[in-house]
Amino acid sequence: MSRNFGKLLVSLALPAILVAVTLIAAPASAAQAVRLQYRTSAPGATTAQAEPWLRLFNDGTTTIPLNQVKIRYYLTGTETYRFACSWAVVGCATITGRFAPQEGGKQYLEVGFTSGSLSPGQNTSDMQLRFYRADWQTFAQSDDYSYGANTAYTNWDKVTVYVNGQLAWGNPTGTDPDPDPDPDPTDPPGGGTGELFDDFTYSSSTDPRLAQRGWTVRSSSGGPGVPGATWSPGAVSFPGGLLTLDSSTNGTAAGTVQTELSTASRKFHEGTYAARVRFSDAPTSGPDGEHVVQTFFTITPLAYNLDPNYGELDFEYLPNGGWGEPSNILYATSWETYQGEPWQAVNTHTEERTSFAGWHDLVIQVSGGRIKYYVDGRLFADHGDIYYPETPMWIMFNQWFIDLQGVTGTRTYRQQVDYLYHSKNEVVPPATVLSRVAALRAAGTAFKDTVPNP
């Protein structure tokens, strides 16, 4: 390294260091004074689920947009946890939660908001939050930094509050002072170059607006799934603005119906993909037990065996297992390519073996050579290398059967989708996805597509 170049690096680094010190050390302004109160409804030292209840106060003189607020609750241990909101005056739909690791076997739960504001002299009132281990094992919470056994609200400085990235309340612990990590430096700057949003307000699978807006309801035969099964548009419906896939079988190929909705255009590559999907563990009718696959994914067609231009990014939920798995499992899988006969898969996957029944916000970020999968704001998987997609893809939802169990009686499984959102060439954090979707709905937007055709 030349002497002058070293000086240049130092001159560039010093302002960055000063800015970082300023961001970490700057006190909250008097105009934006906040205070947090805490209590718990699960005070035991060991519990199946921690239940921190929070109230955020605005003791300042200016209104605080809640989407600028991050609240951190600090834990000991590296176990995988799930976050939930039981009830909140501000509305659970506006509250997000994600877990982030810290050095030394610690982590924190970061609570955020997608919308709303807090006026001077007001508070959020109850936010009844909870979190639990993904495997539902009990855990000790008495050694968690933010835990307290008090069952009445008390000012609590072991839970921190950040406003616009600045510490506004409490005493943090551990590493990673940034309350909302920025995207990777390789992420494309300047925002997206087109948006797709669909609220799925259609009358039926024969609604002409589906084709006008670039959707295809599958009726053609073929894989995946049971050979000889029917892909039925009639089993695709939109009650209450929810894309609904009802797949059924009576244990025979001729009596098996599978369902799929796909974009007609392959114009989606780098950027952010998001959908709120409802997975189900049990059939809506008939006996349980089929190996069914419920999905949200993007895909490029395979031109030939081991085609290097093939790509596929999957969320796949198996409520009854399959592929050698004995029970429910959620996969995030990134594909480089495959061949059919003999079977050879070139992919990488991350999985969690637990029930994911219910509604979940699923996000896939594709940028800078990395594919990041999020479930309810939590980073679920991070893939890259040869598995990064090279070519534009379709967006799809489908529900199909791996095989048949041959049980007498027809059984029907249901998967539903509340919305689809895509931003081309932009990494959008999961919380921002929710705020954008909320803003589109508040504006009365049922459909938007500004993504350019290839």
From TrEMBL:
Which first-to-last residue range defines the signal peptide? 1-30
Q: Does the keyword Lipid metabolism apply?
A: no
In this chain the CBM3 domain maps to: 30-174
Question: Domain named GH16: which ranges?
Answer: 125-428
> What molecular function terms (GO) are annotated for this protein?
cellulose binding; hydrolase activity, hydrolyzing O-glycosyl compounds
Q: According to the UniProt record, where is the region Disordered?
A: 168-196, 214-233
Q: Which UniProt keywords apply?
A: Signal
GO biological-process terms attached to the record? carbohydrate metabolic process
- Protein name as it appears in the record: Hydrolase
User: What is the organism of origin for this protein?
Assistant: Nonomuraea rubra
- Lineage of this protein's species? Bacteria, Bacillati, Actinomycetota, Actinomycetes, Streptosporangiales
